[in-house]
Fold this protein.
Amino acid sequence: MSRIFSYDDTIAAIATPLGPGGIGIVRVSGPSVVEIYHRIFRPTHTTDRQVISHRLTYGWVFDPSTGEDVDEAMAVVMKSPASYTREDVLEIQCHSSPALLHKVLEICLANGARLAEPGEFTMRAFLNGRIDLSQAEAVLDITTARAELAGHLALSHLKGLFSQEVADIRRHLVDALASVEAAIDYPEEDVEILGEASLVKDLKSRIRPRVLSLIEAYGRGKVLREGVEVLIVGRPNVGKSSLLNAMACEDKAIVTPVPGTTRDLVEAEIDMDGLAVRLVDTAGIRTDPDPVEQIGIKKIEERLHDTALVLWVMDISTPVDAEDLSVGEALSPLQEEKILIVLNKTDLIDQDPEYLARERLRSIGKILGGTRQHPYICLSAKKGVALDRLSLAIRQRVVSDHTAAQLKIAPNLRQKRALENALISIDRACAALDQGVSPELVSIDLKDAILALEGITGEDITEEVLGHIFSRFCLGK
């Protein structure tokens, strides 16, 4: 059995990121927690020597082998089952020096604990029944959330909303299976179950749509979890780098009046009202690029189809020229929904920006094709004008505010595949019922669907899958 599945001993790890900070925490879990606490921690007040669960105690961590104090600290013991792992847990809050934290950890390891594997604390919480597997994965999502919306989605999963939906679907499948097995077990009673429209209708109109809805939510959830990539393209000197710097609120890209300054991709990740957006400034596209610019343009072409959105930046203060048209030709294979036109440098014009915008759009309309006018934003990256409108437009293109607010449950890739397997089995069961196939075969399909759903919450899961899931966790979680 893999070491990570051996959970009858005591484990320890540093539970906070190493580096400057207010405090650092060493976490210990297992049957030897209280013994280790007495061995390595000396409360300042003698009245605190008795361990009281969930009481934070001030004192000193010391090395029993030398008797020397190591650090001033706060310590708390959380006795089973009222702890994260449902085991006895000790947390020592020290100063955050990496060398100091490693010293405290070494003392714990020398006095009855072993070093925890990645994710082993959460693994124990799962194995001890505190959380199911879906909630355990939500713990990982919370610790790695790149923006607020991803955190909200992970928190709803941690609360069990996704697990509850899966469990309810499973319950309906179990009811259907019970009906089928009644026909198998009591054929002499002439139980009319399999051929009746009610069971097929229940599977098709009540159960199947709910499974399909969860599968379809995967794509929207993926956007919130992983964020989106937005390419900034255009001919040289239209303000692409200025736009990146303005959106990122820092000088990520070099800005000069010299055409072709940006040769490689320059990236900046920003939190756009709770959504992680990775902006990518690209080399200017023009009709006669030098060899280095050609490499940069090639990188643009490689990423065009995989990016969530393309910002086509043009200079509203100058007429559309051949290089603008070259950009349009490069973007023409993309769907209309993936292109947002940004008319920059409104600070350089005296005319109405909307009048000039319509004029520019007429000049490029035939290149992009489509039957409707392309959406656009007039702004000044240099002056910071209308950047909020651009942020809102980007969000609405990749995920609407309504969707973000309503999306409480969405599977990850592993869960989505399990749901897809369940859907296949449900469809087979429906087809078998329609065709009057023997109840034994229908029963097999329903059992397969139930097992697929149980794999989501961990009721039916292999050690190999568990090891893969928890290996992605950091030490101490």
Q: What stands out?
A: Residues 3-132 form a domain with the Gyrase A; domain 2 fold (CATH 3.30.1360.120). The mean pLDDT is 86.
